[in-house]
Amino acid sequence: MKFAKVPARVLLPLAGAALATTALAAPATAAPEHWADGEVHYAESRSFVTPYDGTQGARAVLRVDWETGKGGVYGNTWDLKKDGNDAVLQAGYSWLDGSTWKPVTRTLNTVEDASDSGRHTSLHTDPAVKIKDLKVRVCTVDGAGARVWCGDWH
Description:
Layout (H helix, E strand, L loop, with lengths): L7 H17 L10 E3 L6 E6 L8 E10 L2 E10 L6 E12 L2 E12 L7 E7 L5 E11 L5 E4 L4
Antiparallel strand pairs: 1-7, 2-3, 3-4, 4-7, 5-6, 5-8, 8-9
């Protein structure tokens, strides 16, 4: 997996926009299974802005933190096209069930198509759940929840 460094001159303006958007965003929905609300800082961290060339339906500026067995996702997601599809932020990881690692993909947050504002995410894994290989991506989904488009895993 490759991670691109994002220069501060790119992240800072986006962070300002993210903070401004956060005030307008609807309240967060309940955290999905394995996740809890709130920000917890872990030793390792990567920040990125998902690429955009005009064809994607969603975009995000995110920070992913992790340590052995735990992780967190913080940032904003936007629906870029008013096309009837919602934008979602997904996390992919493996979780320890007894002695078996089980892969799973969870939707962490959704930005409804009718909304002009983004959705802020501030989630960390439940301390009782051990995870590994945490990645995130943005997707668009139709009214039935079926994926229409997904970006790369980061």
